[in-house]
Amino acid sequence: MSVSKPFDGTLWLAKDGTTVCILDQTRLPHETVVRRLTTVAQAAEAIVTMQVRGAPLIGVTAAFGVALAMRKDSSDRGMAAAHELLIATRPTAVNLRWALDAMREHLAPLDPNVRTSAAYAEASRMLSDDIATNRAIGQHGLRLIQSALKKRRGTGPVRILTHCNAGRLGTLGWGTATAPMYLAHEAGIPIHVWVSETRPRNQGAALTAWELGQAGIPLTVVVDNAAGHLLQRGLVDLVLVGADRVTANGDAANKIGTYLKALAAKAHRVPFYVAFPGTTIDWTLRDGVREIPIEERSAREVTHVVGASSTGRLAEVRVTPEGVAARNDAFDVTPAHLITGLITERGVCRATAAGLKHLFPETTIGMKSPRPSAGRRSKSKPKSIKPARH
Ligand code: MRU
Q1: At 382, is the pLDDT very low, low, confident or very high (cuts 50, 70, 90)?
Q2: Is residue 373 one of the residues assigned to a domain?
Q3: Is 277 touching ligand 1 by the criterion CB < 6 Å?
Q4: Is residue 221 within 8 Å of 248, Cβ to Cβ?
Q5: pLDDT at residue 378 tops 50
């Protein structure tokens, strides 16, 4: 399936065919800075510092990191060293492990002389698969927006609340949670997006607001703590977020603050959907709260904020008393019972082991994630089973 993407922006290969270019997301929305990665160490650094971020993009960046490593040392030892360096970059998004395992499985049987070209080819395939996958997620999620529109009975746009950036900046295509929004907008369906700022790093305020704004999608940024209020006032028709890791039973880890939104949505009977590709499912885990590793990042992200001054210069300012204790858990886990439905490239299902198994029948609980099959690799037709009632 050939699919075009809305903008060339998050990661691409330079004209030399080997340098990996990324859009530095730590500088957005204030500056558009492109970084050129030529070594695996630079790829690892880009992931750690969140110049690239978002579960699918982290995975593909790591895959290209392996390709960069193969240029220097394509021996078994070189492969193992690259794997070890990259796997340690960020712990929660399981797409990282999935991509690195897939690269290792693909390259290990090959002669070291051909591993570099094979690595670039495989990483490029992951990149185009992600674009097709996002599109499929968008198509399935679009139906939910269409049915929300019907419920609005012409009283205004569908009001969607999202958190963090599960957008095209976090992927290679349309994003996950944002894909249905882009397709709805393209189809002329009126939507309005409440963008939750997402402290401490403000991925909502900085990144989601930037990319939705670029596409002309009406949006309003709100502070994280406004979500309960908006839901209570009946100002949200649908909550749509992404995920970094989903367990076999449908628990979903996503950016810190997602869980609180799910609790509030449940209390106010507003549907809460999580959108993600099959590569985000960790079939080896069943209990997300107990088993998903939660990244703890620097306390400085809590005590300080980065923004542009009135002259446009980027500056970091402290918002707490100097030396105060701070803790920075970067993700939380929303238990499956709070989730109305899961949107994947294969369709929409209940957040249950049976729901996921129905969409991914080739998997068994406990196994490593197989290669996804939304696009040209698809063997099964997309299908949907009814999400939970709210
Ligand atoms: O810490 P980040 O910015 O990498 O966290 C990103 C998220 O939590 C996203 O919602 C998730 O990765 C989905 S990206 C399409």
Answers
A1: very low
A2: no
A3: no
A4: no
A5: no
> Which residue has better confidence, 118 or 386?
118
pLDDT in tens, 114-155: 999 999 999 999 999 999 999 999 999 999 999 999 999 989
Same structural domain, 64 and 199: no
CATH number of the domain residue 155 falls in: 3.40.50.10470
Give the pLDDT confidence of 96-118 residue by residue, as tens digits.
Answer: 999 999 999 999 999 999 999 99
Residues 89 and 194 both lie in one domain:
no
d(CA 168, CA 213): 12
DSSP bridge pairs for 316: 306
User: Is ligand 1 within 6 A of the CB of residue 231?
Assistant: no
Tokens of 242: 């992404």
Q: Among the three residues 103, 128, 153, which one is the final residue of a domain in this structure?
A: 128
Pair (90, 149) in one structural domain: no
244 in active site? yes
Q: How far apart are CA 219 and CA 222, in angstroms?
A: 10
Q: Which residues contact 290 (CB under 8 A, 6 or more apart)?
A: none
Domain that holds residue 6: 2-128
CB atoms within 10 A of CB 219: 21
Q: Name the residue of 11, 163, 165, 210 to mutate for ligand 1: max ligand atoms within 8 A of Cβ.
A: 165
CATH number at residue 90: 1.20.120.420
CA of 313 to the centre of ligand 1 (A): 26
> For all residues of the chain together, what is the average pLDDT?
93
